[in-house]
Structures are given as C-alpha cells and as structure tokens.
Amino acid sequence: MALLSLENVSKTFGGVMAVKSVSLQVEPGEVLGVMGPNGSGKTTLFNLVSGALVPNSGTIRFKGAPITGLPPHRICRQGIARTFQLVRPFLGLTARQNILVGLGYGCRPLSGSAAREKSEELLASVGLEGLGDRPASTLTAMDRKRLDLARALATSPDLLLLDEFMAGLNPQETSEAMGLIRRLQARGLTLVLVEHIVWALLELSQRIVVLSAGEKIAEGPPTAIARDPRVVEIYLGSIPFP
Amino acid sequence: MILAQQLILGLLVGGLYGLAAAGLSLTFGVLRVLNVAHGDLLMLGGYVTFWLFSLWHVDPFLSLAAVAPSLFFLGLILYCVLFRFVVRAREEVRIKNSLLIGFGLTLVFQILAIQFFTADERSVTTAYGGEAIKIAGLAIPLVRLASVVLAFLVLAALQIFLNRARWGRAIRATAEDWEAASLMGIPVGRAYLWAFALGTALAGVAGGLVSVSYSISPTIGLEWTLKALIVTVLAGLGSLFGSFAGGLLLGFAEAGSGLLLGGAYREAVGLGLFLIILITRPQGLFGSR
C-alpha cells in the first residue's frame, strides 16, 4: 500500500488553477523527486499535503486514511513533516528549544530527560553539535537549514517533505546537504523532494514527477525523465529543427 | 530628600505598571490582538481581592492564590466566546474587531462594576498597611515593596514556564510563527487559549496588588490599559523582564517629572516618552527587530 496517495487533487487561487487534478503515490521507503519550472505548483502541492492549504477537490490519503482538510498539527501528528524553502526556525528560541518543540508535539511526543537526550542526538545528526544553546537568530544560513531539518525530524515523521533544501547553498554546502539527505534515506525515511537543482534531484531520487502549470506531465525513473522530450521542452523550450 | 523619596515611590508603582504590561504584551505578542479591556480585567482582579478581604478577612497577598485562577478562568471564557473568532482573521480585520470587542468589554465590565460594587473608590487596608521600612531617612512602605517583589516573582515564574515547560515553548513558538508552529504539531488554537488566559491572570494579580497598595474603582481600567500600553511600547514585545524594567522606568520618569514640573504634567510625561520611543526606536528599548 502506498504511504501517501493523491487522487485528482486540485487547488485554485481566485480562478488560477495552481494544481490541476494531480494524482500520485509515494511508496514507503522511496525518495520521490518533484520538479518543474517556477510556478508549476510544487510548493502548493507541499502545502496541500501538510495541511497549510485545503484542496478544492480530490482526496489525500496517508497510510490509507484520508487526511484531506485536517488541520496541520493533526497531519503532523500522523507522521508528515516538512521543511521550508525559506527556512523559518523559531528565531527567539535556542536551537535546542526549537528541536524540543518538535519533540514535544510531533508524531511520537517525548518529554523530560528522554526529550533532552533525543535533542542532543538530533543536533549531532545534522551537524549542530555544541550549538544547542545558541539562539536560532545567531545561526548562519546553512546552520538554520540544518536546524529546520532537525526540527522536522524531531516530530519523528514517516514521511518528510523537503522544500528546496539546497536553494541558496554553495557547491560545498550542496554536497553536504546531499550527504544529509542520503543518510535520511539510508535510515528508511520516505522522502519527497522539491528541488531546483536538477542534477541533484536526478541523483537523489528513485522516481521523479514533473509538474508544469499545475499538471503532472511526466513520471518515471530519473534516467527516463532526463531524456523525456516533454521535460526537455518545458525546461529549454522546443528547438525548431528544419 | 523629597526627590529621592518620590523616585522610590515612583519605582514602586512602576513595578505594578510592569506587571500590568507583561500581561498585555503576552496576549499581544502571541495572539496579535490588542486587548484594550486589559485594565478592566485588572480592575476586576482588584475587586476580587477587595471583597475577599472585606467579607472574609482574607489577607490580600494570600487572596492572590484565588484571584489568579479565577481570572485565568475568566480569560478562558472570554477567549472561547469572543476572541477565538478574531484570531484567525486577516490582520486588518483582526485588529479592528479585537479593538471593538475590547472596548465593548470595557463598557460592560465598568457598568457591571458600578452596578454591583458602586462607584466608590476602594482599597484594602490591612493591619500592617501603614508600616514602612526606614533607610537613611527614606520611608519605603512595606505593602508597596512587597507588591513589587511579588510582581517580580510572578514574572520570574512565568518566564521559567515559558522557557522550560512544553506548553510554554509551544506558546513562544506560536508567537514567533504560528504557521510553522502548527506544522510542527502544535495545536495553535490551544496555545492562543493558554496565552490569553495567562495574560488575564496576570492582569488579575496586578489588580489585587493595586487594591492593597493603592485604590481601585470601576473606572480605573482605561488608565491602567494606557499605562500598560505605554510600557509595552517602551519595552518592546517579547520579554517579560523587559516589560518589568519598562514599568519601573515609566514609574521613575513620572515621579521625577511630577516633582520637577508639577503633578499636572505627570500623565503628559508618560505619553511624551511614548511618542519619543515610537519615533526613535519603534521596536522598543528591549525589543529586537
């Protein structure tokens, strides 16, 4: 059974169809990449799955049960977590407190010393050892990304949505970020990635869904997607040969 | 000597300004709703203390243990029947409607208080009420000093709750970014509810202390809302101790100016300070951003 399934999900914003009858499935343990040009509905799709937006029509199922229209905190507690394209850690809280928020309210809530131990473990797992007592506002951009990820992981999700995790990183940071994502994958976490860096997405994903203007136009393994003429066309435009 | 004495009295009243402001700033910081009835909730807290004392001779400082939970409960009710409906609205609608609700509550509480408690000015006069500590010729009234110390302790306890407790962190996270908080599994509506009730309880405790150290009447609400608002602007949002320090500062400034310029300018100085801070440092003295 698919971990997450979308059936004909649509979302309109004042007459504009941001997501047009999209259906897709995410199998347990897989890494699904979602690509598409700007405005193709990738982030809207994430917002629909995480509950920040409610679809106009269609059904979203998680572990077989419908989650369409549930408030975000309920969806989070069922095991879906996300990170943000523009990271938004709670800036006034320390790094550790940020993680403790996720631990205290997520899918498998922890408290007291168990939560403290787990928070250290999470800080270390994303490479923030020793920075636990720093206010999030004093962290660098890359460290904020790490914190955003650790906070999402703290809710102990079964499905993690990573929204443009590598946006704005330099080449070295990008390869670090890819290492982080691979480690999550190795731990058996199911991942959905939205990413602008196409080569990174092709390298990390087992399967790719391509959106264009809110519609799913292609789906398949990375090698096939990279050669698909429809995908090449939306990224590069069609080349008129004589 | 007179100046020093006045400044000390100013600081003592300032501590209560700080406590009143902390409640207002907690609700405003978390719900983004300005509760202009905050001073009237303070007035109700004062009356609870007053009646507990005059009917059953409950010590006013002891009665705070009853005032805080009863005002907390009132806060829960007010949130559930009124403020719950505005917190999710768009910013403009939310501000407008919360002001309307606040002013409405102000009228209702004031008129109910006049009806049931009469318009007389009341204060709690305990057996130890007249005692003062004398240091170097300066007299520090015992109850006022105790009030300020208690106000500080209440804020310290609340700060520990906000830092350490699971719900405390949830409230702070919600204040920072409610959308991200809800995506992390926090029921944001519940965080709003607790924050509002806590703010109301703080108003109640402040009112209890005002009734011992000073006096209360049904119409003091607006004055205290205004003081709390000035202090909140002075100190900035987001820090309870900032509010406390801001309160002390306002009390100090009022006392100093009252003596130098005459009592008539007391209120004007507070509002003048308010304007200067708004123009030069809109985030407040201790606020960030």
TrEMBL record, chain A:
Record domain ABC transporter: where: 4-238
Pfam families, per the entry: ABC_tran, BCA_ABC_TP_C
SMART domains: AAA
Gene3D superfamilies associated with the record: P-loop containing nucleotide triphosphate hydrolases
Cellular component, GO, one term: plasma membrane
GO molecular function list: ATP binding; ATP hydrolysis activity; L-isoleucine transmembrane transporter activity; L-phenylalanine transmembrane transporter activity; L-valine transmembrane transporter activity
GO terms of biological process kind: D-alanine transmembrane transport; L-alanine transport; L-isoleucine import across plasma membrane; L-valine import across plasma membrane
Keyword tags: ATP-binding, Nucleotide-binding, Transport
TM helices/strands, residue ranges: none
Entries under PROSITE patterns matching the protein: ABC_TRANSPORTER_2
Protein name: ABC transporter ATP-binding protein
TrEMBL record, chain B:
Single annotated GO MF: transmembrane transporter activity
Topological type in the membrane: Multi-pass membrane protein
Keyword Lyase set for record: no
A Pfam cross-reference name: BPD_transp_2
Alphabetized UniProt keyword annotations: Amino-acid transport, Cell membrane, Membrane, Transmembrane, Transmembrane helix, Transport
Transmembrane segments: 6-34, 41-58, 64-87, 99-118, 138-162, 191-216, 228-252, 259-279
Coiled coil stretches, renumbered: none
Keyword Transmembrane helix: yes
Cell location: Cell membrane
Gene Ontology BP term (one): amino acid transport
GO cellular component term, pick one: plasma membrane
Family named by the database record: Belongs to the binding-protein-dependent transport system permease family. LivHM subfamily.
Name the UniProt record assigns to this protein: Branched-chain amino acid ABC transporter permease
Organism field: Tectimicrobiota bacterium
